[in-house]
Amino acid sequence: MINTVLDQASGLRKMSQNNNHGVKVIAVTGGKGGVGKTNVSLNTAIALGQQGNRVLVLDADLGLANCDVMLGLRVEKNLSHVLSGECELDEILVEGPAGIKIVPATSGSQSMVELTPAEHAGLIRAFSELNTEFDILIVDTAAGISDMVLSFSRAAQDVMVVVCDEPTSITDAYALIKVLSREHGVYKFKIVANMVRSLREGQELFAKLSKVTDRFLDVALELVATVPFDENMRKSSRRQKTIVELFPNSPAAVAFRGLASKAVKWPIPHQPSGHLEFFIEQLVNG
Ligand SMILES: Nc1ncnc2c1ncn2[C@@H]1O[C@H](COP(=O)(O)OP(=O)(O)OP(=O)(O)O)[C@@H](O)[C@H]1O
Ligand SMILES: [Mg+2]
């Protein structure tokens, strides 16, 4: 136990040496499966990378269509190998397009919310000892309202909720917002209207969701992006690429670049809450 505390202390000291600038942490969520969370995460991340930001993506989705698969990257080790002490966090990072880095979390992250004190300390230390500095961390979460999704969202500074114009997507997004606001102290949500046919449809979708949240919950929603349904999205997926790389002028790619330009302006909390380690601490300590 003493060792754990010491480990944690030395990890936190290191943090002020290494990542002593703020890191913006954005969780991408949605409640419903297949609404475009991973595509929003990766395209926004790559657009941010293209705009000169140092971006880390934490793949917190245990499903099959995870980040490395979508980008056609080879992953050998994941966060569970870092937790077991087999390797350092730097060694498992995979480089994606526009210089973005991905933390393959895979099955190891399932236990991230139920770690032992030693693992807690190990994880915090792993992030504090990262040799690379990052400006933004994007967390691609899984579908549903599991403890893990809630923990990632609660620990992040900004929560983006991806919704489509389907009753189940709106209901699931509402359910997620309700749980996060009533039980986890999250009151601000950044809404991404995805797969819409027009800007107007995006605004209407946002209005439908806001109508129910305004009526029953004490939350503030902001429409941060309207991403059109774009055939080039599927074409890109089939080639294990993102639309911002393959079809940079297509409407969805333009929307993602707009979202990236907005996201860099969202304020980063002052230290220490702006640190990556703080995010991990929040994540594991609740
Ligand atoms: N704007 C869009 N236009 C067209 N197709 C889209 C758009 N956004 C996402 N898609 C398609 O929807 C499917 C689901 O996308 P994605 O895997 O990103 O969703 P997800 O929410 O991460 O799913 P899961 O819940 O399984 O993790 C993919 O086939 C993707 O190509
Ligand atoms: Mg996904």
Automatic annotation (TrEMBL):
GO biological process terms, semicolon-separated: negative regulation of cell division
Pfam families: ParA
Record's GO cellular component terms: cytoplasmic side of plasma membrane; cytosol
UniProt keyword annotations, A-Z: ATP-binding, Nucleotide-binding
Keyword Hydrolase: no
UniProt keyword annotation of ATP-binding present: yes
InterPro entries xref list: FlhG, MinD_FleN, P-loop_NTPase, ParA/MinD_ATPase, YlxH/NBP35
One term of GO molecular function: ATP binding
Coiled-coil regions listed in the entry: none
PANTHER family named among the record's database cross-references: CELLULOSE BIOSYNTHESIS PROTEIN BCSQ-RELATED, SEPTUM SITE-DETERMINING PROTEIN MIND HOMOLOG, CHLOROPLASTIC-RELATED
The protein's name in its UniProt record: Flagellum site-determining protein YlxH
Source organism per UniProt: Pseudoalteromonas holothuriae
